[in-house]
Structure formats: C-alpha cells, structure tokens
Automatic annotation (TrEMBL):
It comes from Marchantia polymorpha. The keyword Isomerase applies. GO terms for biological process: chlorophyll biosynthetic process; dimethylallyl diphosphate biosynthetic process; isopentenyl diphosphate biosynthetic process. Residues 84-103 are annotated as: Disordered. This is isopentenyl-diphosphate Delta-isomerase. CDD domains: NUDIX_IPP_Isomerase. Keywords: Chlorophyll biosynthesis, Isomerase, Isoprene biosynthesis. Belongs to the IPP isomerase type 1 family. GO terms for molecular function: isopentenyl-diphosphate delta-isomerase activity. Its EC number is 5.3.3.2.
Length: 341
C-alpha cells in the first residue's frame, strides 16, 4: 500500500490506494535507456511517489455515475462524480449544431466495458462529453469519451473530436514528457508530450475567441494529470501554434480520431503526477528526445511513443523548439491551417 497526496480546492487530502503494477516502483525504462547520455535527466516526480509516508486517510462517500457504487475519489479538484455538466447547446459560445448528441452505445456493450475498466478510467469514459467537430473544426455535436474512442464508431460514424497537446518547457528549455498510466484505455504505458487531452462540452471550454476554450481545458488538465496549479499555468501563457488532424488505432477496439490543438508554454512549475493518469515524468533535452525516438523506432527496451507525439516530433517540434530558444516562437504560429497527417 502507498499514499498519494492530492490537492483539492479547500485542502490537501490523502487517498490510500494500491499502486498499479509498474508504477514508480522500479527505475523507469526511460532512465535506463538514456543513462549513458552525458546530460542527465531531471525527474519531476516527487519522492513520495516511490516512497510514500505511512499515514493515510481515505476519502469516501462520493457516488460513481458509471458504476452506481460509493467509491473513493482519487482525482484532484475536478472530481465530478454525481455532478452533471451543464449542456451549453442553448448558449452562444460556439455554433454549428452544438446541441446534437451522437451514437448512444448499447446496454450490453456498456456493461462489458464497465466490468473491464479501471474504476477511474471507467468514470471518465462515461462522464466526459467530448466536442464533436467536422474537418474544418466546426462544432457539430458532442458525445461520450467512450464512443469517441471506439474504433467502430470512428470508422462507421466518422466521429472526430477536438483535442489538445501541451508542450511545457522549463527555463533551461527542457521539455517535460509524461508516461501514460498502465490503466489508460488508449495507449497505456507510452511516452508522450506533457499533457494530452480534450476540451469538454461545456461553456468555458467551447469559447472560440483566441482559442480560450482549449486553453481553459489545457489548464484544467495540467492540474488533473500533473498537479500543476492554475496560478503556475496561466491561460495567457499558452502559445497556440497550430492544429493537426490524425487518426490512430491503439488496439483492435480503441483509438483516436482528433483535431488536435498544439500548445507551447515555458514555465518553471512544481509537478505532482496523478497516478491514475501518469506513471512517470521526465524533462529532456533535444538530444535526449532524439535518442528516445531512435529507441522507440527500433523497438528497443519496450519504449513506445504516442502516435500524435510522433507526428508532432516528425513535422514541427524541433523547429518550434529552436524558435522557443531564440525567443521567436510566436512567429511560427499558424492557426488558420489544419494539417492532415
């Protein structure tokens, strides 16, 4: 047993939980692979992730929408069990038929998946409502995270949802990477950029002006996944550089079909990973990332990269990284083009 401490809006609480296999108990494959590098990696994971304090208190009494059981909430601040996100279909945040919900799943399929999923990921699959868009990024409706990541729905109904990818650099121009948790439904245990998620179908994350809705969502998820406080990741510090449209299968059942906003930020931040989302974090230099990419392409050491991260690395990242170092990053921004990769 180990104790993971989380921040809530009012106080710090501790949740006692059994760490999933492979989480932070042994030296990460990333560190092993790059240990010969002349420049050492700087890990942002707090020591409590591998050697937690003995004392623990449980948090209970919150009701899971997906299971109907009273279960502990292990997610920081934005726990929405039993809460209903307001439907903004009648608001003026962004048009395009936003009130239409697509593709209700069958009861049999839902039951099967609920039994198989980790409880936290299960809840997110059914609670989160993604923003459906067309290939020009116009909002056309909303649907559950579950449906949006079913390859059957992606192929049959061409479900495309809005997403974002954050690339966070420190003052030394090192990029923060995360390794996705083993309990993630799509692309578990793969290395990727700092934070990858999707804005939800709610007023604050549908705001089109200056891409504020996406930036609000990115700030929310930096806290959810990495414990980065909102004050340390102000929305005005995100630089929106571009958009990509891609499709990728995770396995035979799950995958991604996203119109992905690419966001850069340069800040020194305190990182406290949420083990339900993240199993490891590392800051890397360009040279260390290049070595990691080589290992992943060669299939060495079990290292894998997320498909969206690979696409950004291959098409944009190193040029943008250079512009970041030069202080001319904003010159690279192009939010008019949607790159189909």
């Amino acid at each position: 047993m180990a104790t993971i401490a989380f921040e809530t809006a009012a106080s710090r609480v501790s949740a006692s939980l059994m760490l999933k296999s492979g989480f932070s108990r042994c030296k990460s494959p990333f560190a092993v692979l790059l240990s010969s590098s002349s420049a050492g990696l700087t890990s942002s994971a707090p020591s409590s992730l591998s050697a937690a304090p003995a004392a623990a208190s449980s948090v209970s009494g919150l009701r899971s929408v997906a299971t109907g059981r009273s279960s502990p909430c292990l997610r920081p601040r934005h726990c929405s069990w039993g809460l209903k996100v307001s439907d903004p279909s009648s608001s003026s945040s962004e048009g395009g038929g936003g009130g239409r919900r697509r593709g209700l799943m069958s009861a049999a399929a839902m039951s099967m998946e609920v039994e198989q999923m980790d409880p936290v990921q299960q809840r997110l699959m059914f609670d989160d409502e993604c923003i459906l868009v067309d290939e020009q990024d116009n909002v056309v409706g909303h649907d559950s995270k579950y449906n949006c990541h079913l390859m059957e729905k992606i192929e049959k109904d061409n479900l495309l949802h809005r997403a974002f990818s954050v690339f966070l650099f420190n003052s030394k121009n090192e990029l923060l990477l995360q390794k996705r948790s083993a309990t993630k439904v799509t692309f578990p245990q793969v290395w990727t950029n700092t934070c990858c998620s999707h804005p939800l179908y709610r007023d604050s994350e549908l705001i089109k002006e200056n891409n504020l809705g996406v930036r609000n969502a990115a700030q929310r998820k930096l806290f959810d996944e990495l414990g980065i406080e909102a004050k340390d990741a102000p929305v005005d510090d995100f630089t929106c550089l571009g958009r990509i449209l891609y499709k990728a299968a995770s396995d035979g059942k799950w995958g991604e079909h996203e119109l992905d906003y690419l966001l850069f930020m340069k800040r020194d931040v305190a990182v406290k990973p949420n083990p339900d989302e993240v199993s490891d974090v590392q800051y890397v230099t360009k040279e260390q990332l290049q070595e990691l990419v080589k290992k992943a392409k060669a299939g060495e050491g079990g290292v894998k990269l997320s498909p969206w991260f690979q696409l950004v690395v291959e098409n944009f990242l190193y040029d943008w990284w250079k512009k970041l170092e030069e202080g001319t990053l904003v010159e690279s921004a192009d939010m008019k083009t949607i790159h189909r990769l």
